[in-house]
Amino acid sequence: TIAAEGRGFTLSRKSEDARKAGTMLLILTGVFTLISVVILTIAAINITHTFLMLIYERKHEMGILRAIGATRSDVRRLVLGEAALIGVMGGVVGNGLSMVLARVANALANRHLVGVPFRPDDLFVFSPCLLVGAVGFAVLFCVIGAFFPANRAAQLDPARVLTMR
Fold first, then answer.
1. What pLDDT sits at residue 90?
2. Among 40, 83, 115, 147, which residue's beta carbon has the most beta carbons within 10 A?
3. pLDDT class for 76, splitting at 50, 70, 90?
4. Residue 143 to residues 29, 47, 70: CA-CA distances in angstroms?
């Protein structure tokens, strides 16, 4: 379009509106991407805090595990395994809720947007790759968030923990 304008041609009103709409969509996509990154960062921090509290509350239990022969890596794997399980459950529940809400939105759109031309059949479509990726992200962020608390749990001294009350 810039090359055409450089040669003295002008864009029609519809082409100019389409370019503005495309630019607006690009800006909105960037803003939503930035918001998503902030939300994911806050979620990882919250997961870390939750697992730090979990380690604090269960340090006696982990001290017993260490006293009866569990290695540091066993304790670390236990905490990270719990985090992965929470991630799987959260991802599956989140996908399920989003699919239900998307079906409701699609049904409402089909009912109320009958006369709109070029209306898609469905506003929200979930590919299997997207669903698997969402669960994968949930597991990844839970494991990342639990990594430092798991290391802290692995470093607990069983003698010190079991003598404290």
1. 93
2. 83
3. very high
4. 28, 9, 21
